[in-house]
Amino acid sequence: GARRGDVLFFYDGLCLMLKNLLCILAALNRKYFSADEPRWIEYELSQMAIVPLNMWSRIQDMFSVGETQAVQILEELIDEVLVLVKQHQPEVELTAGQRRKDMKVRPCYHKPNLH
Questions:
Q1: φ, ψ for residue 19 (rounded to 5)?
Q2: How far apart are CA 91 and CA 16, in angstroms?
Q3: Are 61 and 73 a contacting pair, CB within 8 Å?
Q4: Which residue in 33, 42, 48, 94 has the fewest CB atoms around it within 10 Å?
């Protein structure tokens, strides 16, 4: 989406993935978190013992750096959250998620004809 200038799509995807990570972290920390209305994220993260280092500042960085670097930060956060899940909930099966993460996404530069 970023390569074709579809910024709404790109940032919507970043936000969706961040909400998913926050939900996973809330579950690991046995806290309630609503991804429907994500508010006070810095505070919520400060109340969690199990969280990637400097997560709040890294989230902020994602929205002030270029798209390529934002994706890199997101991928690092995903990897770190998966490590935390493995450490604190080893019974959770992560192989399907890892396979999806390893899939290569092919870019789509033109809107497909769906007729």
A1: -60, -40
A2: 25
A3: yes
A4: 42
Mind giving me the DSSP string for 31-79? Answer: ----SSS---HHHHHHT-SS--TTHHHHHHHHTTS-HHHHHHHHHHHHH
Per-residue pLDDT tens over the stretch 32-79: 888 888 888 999 999 999 999 999 999 999 999 989 999 999 999 999
pLDDT at 105 over 70: no
Q: Are 35 and 17 in contact (CB under 8 A)?
A: no
Nearest to 5 by CA among 67, 62, 73, 63: 67
Tell whether pTM > 0.90: no
Q: How far apart are CA 49 and CA 28, in angstroms?
A: 9
Residues of the chain with pLDDT > 90: what percent?
57
CA 73/CA 76 separation, integer angstroms:
5
Angle made by CA atoms 56, 100, 55, in degrees to the nearest 5 = 5
